[in-house]
């Protein structure tokens, strides 16, 4: 009997193209090189073509005088300002409507989401109808509805609807009194800041104390008291240095006060009501995702209804709510660019609209505008991811 | 009403076109493309009576439209071979730069920036205009000097927006610009009372006033605050096409001066007067260098008409706008419309 002699296992290294790890590395390097080559080609080709067609390129235009007016600006702006300034004005207007929209949509969404779970038949159905109506109508139509159907039918400035001869609503917008701080008013603001910091410190101390001893103070009520009382005392002590600039009708329109443009109102209403409908569904699903056993367990530990909601249900629901909520916030910011349809001076209308047209530098302007939305979205995303990590279930 | 999306789309197309296209515009390129396609693609407004607006059958009409018909008549001997692309003020230059249209004839003001930095060339002036103000009668205002603090409805991406700021700075007054994408929207805003004043070129104000539900409730103020020479635009770098569009307009103006009209063009074709014979192409061949047939000018006049006919039919005495010739009269009649001779 002869035993077949098995050859000894050979240990030589295979050529690199047969090693999956090295091959993957090679392909990635090739891919990257190809990507850079394509980008390089596109950039150089674009510059060459623009030059050949006699189209001016570069970002020098940002220092040129803009020469057109913008109806709403959060910073100083005149037609003598530069195109760079129009970019900032547009950016701030976009941020303004996005911030207002996110705040309002969050409040509406949470209220409606909770209302939808209400045991009260009427409240639950109203919330349900709200969600189904507003999330199923295109946003642009809702903007047109608020702007053309609702705000366009308001009276002229001379026939304004008024509230106590101080707040006026007309086709030119909502005019409200503007607070004007006197010389000592800054101390009230300082007091407010001190009070807020004190409240935060108190809440944190209370939490540590509770963890250590089990005793707890009603920190929420005390904080609220500090925040209201301290600035109020300082305000009265400094002789109430605050006056109101009441709008007055004169010439063509109201002068004085703060005017909220109808374009801003329409966009804000439409964005927050539309996005609010989606957030309501997210909140409802988040709450329903917390199993009933959790509530029953909390009740068994004799936690009150409010505490059950605040300490048991909401923290767990938030983990489900936050990731889709982030998407809604990002959508709202991007949707705010529909402003241009009704003439609200946001970034797309002012910069990617008028500035682009007056300078003709389409590539630079569109690239800058896209970079802004990308940056804003990434920042919101980063913040929400951080917030999500904080709210996540800490596993011990 | 999705102008915004359309603008972005246009810009994106332009960007892609410039990103990927190779080579530059060459003489003859546009003419060859037009001939191969069999029609001229012409950018016009989204609807401005007298200049470019669709009638109740959907046929475009107006001065700017007739310039396009003239170009088609010169190239093909058939004025109907035009495809019209309605564009708003923001889209117009990108559409031309990207090659989406061959010629832009859309009440566009000739300015230094537009002529020198956009890679475009203005081919002449088809209408001398100026910016004015339309106000409600009920305001009781009769001069632009009384408009301090008023709200103005204005179309975005226009020279109007810039002139408005200049005027109010020069007169040390304040204003509130309410900016819309189309002229229809500015009229809507004006009618609803969103703004006190509608500002645009005076010819447009007359046209827009007629569209109001009650035209007598508004009036145009006497002040004209700017120069607005409106004319056709082509891409820079293609001189043959530039010449063809430029001389189409010149042919219309020359025809009026020589007394050639759409009605008498056929009789005059046999004329032996040297100037008219050159115009009709029976003497010399002035179309050849532009890539046009010898009777290019005859085709324009017989099918579209001379400048005077085009003016009267669209914006002048023969139209509801009833605008006076004024600056747009021939130089021989007190105006400034003047064309170099065909020789």
Automatic annotation (TrEMBL), chain B:
SMART domains: PBPb (SM00062). Belongs to the bacterial solute-binding protein 3 family. The keyword Transport applies. The lineage of its organism: Bacteria, Pseudomonadati, Pseudomonadota, Gammaproteobacteria, Oceanospirillales. Keywords: Signal, Transport. The keyword rRNA processing does not apply. Residues 1-27 form the signal peptide. Residues 39-268 form the Solute-binding protein family 3/N-terminal domain. This is Amino acid ABC transporter substrate-binding protein, PAAT family. One of its GO terms (biological process) is amino acid transport. PANTHER family: AMINO ACID ABC TRANSPORTER PERMEASE, AMINO-ACID ABC TRANSPORTER-BINDING PROTEIN YHDW-RELATED.
């Amino acid at each position: 009997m002869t035993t077949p002699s098995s050859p000894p296992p050979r240990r030589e290294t295979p050529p690199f193209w047969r090693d999956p790890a090295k091959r993957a590395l090679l392909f990635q390097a090739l891919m990257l090189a190809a990507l850079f080559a394509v980008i390089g080609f596109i950039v150089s080709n674009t510059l060459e073509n623009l030059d050949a067609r006699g189209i001016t390129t570069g970002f020098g235009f940002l220092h040129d005088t803009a020469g057109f007016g913008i109806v709403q600006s959060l910073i100083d702006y005149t037609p003598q300002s530069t195109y760079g300034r129009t970019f900032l004005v547009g950016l701030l207007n976009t941020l303004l409507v996005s911030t207002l929209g996110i705040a309002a949509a969050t409040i509406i969404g949470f209220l409606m989401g909770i209302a939808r779970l209400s045991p009260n038949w009427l409240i639950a159905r109203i919330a349900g109808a709200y969600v189904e109506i507003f999330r199923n109508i295109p946003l642009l139509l809702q903007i047109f509805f608020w702007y053309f159907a609702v705000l366009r039918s308001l009276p002229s400035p001379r026939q304004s609807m008024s509230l106590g001869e101080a707040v006026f609503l007309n086709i030119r917008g909502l005019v409200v009194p503007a607070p004007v701080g006197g010389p000592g008013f800054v101390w009230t603001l300082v007091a407010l800041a001190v009070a807020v910091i004190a409240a935060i410190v108190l809440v944190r101390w209370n939490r540590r104390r509770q963890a250590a001893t089990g005793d707890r103070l009603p920190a929420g009520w005390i904080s609220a008291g500090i925040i209201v009382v301290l600035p109020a005392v300082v305000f009265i002590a400094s002789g109430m240095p605050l006056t109101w600039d009441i709008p007055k009708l004169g010439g063509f329109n109201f002068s004085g006060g703060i005017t909220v443009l109808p374009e801003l109102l329409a966009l804000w209403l439409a964005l927050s009501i539309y996005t609010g409908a989606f957030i309501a569904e997210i909140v409802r699903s988040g709450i329903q995702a917390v199993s009933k056993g959790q509530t029953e367990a909390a009740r068994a530990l004799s936690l009150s209804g409010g505490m059950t909601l605040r300490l048991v249900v909401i923290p767990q629901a938030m983990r489900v709510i936050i990731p889709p909520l982030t998407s809604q916030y990002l959508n709202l910011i991007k949707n705010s660019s529909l402003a241009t349809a009704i003439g609200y001076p946001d970034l797309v209308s002012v910069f990617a609209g008028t500035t682009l047209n007056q300078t003709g530098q389409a590539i630079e302007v569109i690239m800058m505008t896209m970079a802004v939305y990308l940056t804003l979205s990434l920042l919101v995303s980063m913040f929400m991811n951080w917030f999500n990590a904080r709210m996540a279930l800490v596993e011990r | 009403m999705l102008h915004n999306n359309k603008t972005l789309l246009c810009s994106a197309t332009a960007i892609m076109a410039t990103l990927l296209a190779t080579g530059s515009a060459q003489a003859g390129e546009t003419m060859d493309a037009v001939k191969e396609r069999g029609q001229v693609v012409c950018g016009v407004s989204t609807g401005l009576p007298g200049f470019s607006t669709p009638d109740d059958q959907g046929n475009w009409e107006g001065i700017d439209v007739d310039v396009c018909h003239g170009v088609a008549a010169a190239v093909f001997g058939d004025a109907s071979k035009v495809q019209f692309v309605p564009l708003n003020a923001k889209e117009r230059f990108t559409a031309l730069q990207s090659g989406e249209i061959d010629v832009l004839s859309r009440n566009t003001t000739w300015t230094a920036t537009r002529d020198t930095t956009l890679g475009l060339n203005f081919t002449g002036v088809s209408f001398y205009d100026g910016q004015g103000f339309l106000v409600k009668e009920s305001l009781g205002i009769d001069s632009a000097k009384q408009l301090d603090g008023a709200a103005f409805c204005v179309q975005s991406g226009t020279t109007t927006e810039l002139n408005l700021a200049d005027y109010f700075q020069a007169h040390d007054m304040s204003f509130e610009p309410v900016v819309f994408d189309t002229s229809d929207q500015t009229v809507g805003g004006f009618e609803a009372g969103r703004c006190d004043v509608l500002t645009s070129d005076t010819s447009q104000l007359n046209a827009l006033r007629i569209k109001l539900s009650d035209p007598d409730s508004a009036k145009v103020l006497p002040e004209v605050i700017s120069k607005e020479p409106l004319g056709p635009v082509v891409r820079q770098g293609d001189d043959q096409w530039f010449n063809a569009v430029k001389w189409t307009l010149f042919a219309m103006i020359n025809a009026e001066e020589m007394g050639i009209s759409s009605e008498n063009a056929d009789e005059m074709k046999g004329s032996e007067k040297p100037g008219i014979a050159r115009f009709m192409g029976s003497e010399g061949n002035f179309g050849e260098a532009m890539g046009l047939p010898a009777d290019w000018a005859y085709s324009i006049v017989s099918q579209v008409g001379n400048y005077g006919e085009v003016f009267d039919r669209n914006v002048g005495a023969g139209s509801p706008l009833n605008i006076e010739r004024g600056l747009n009269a021939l130089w021989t009649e007190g105006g400034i419309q003047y064309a170099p001779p065909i020789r």
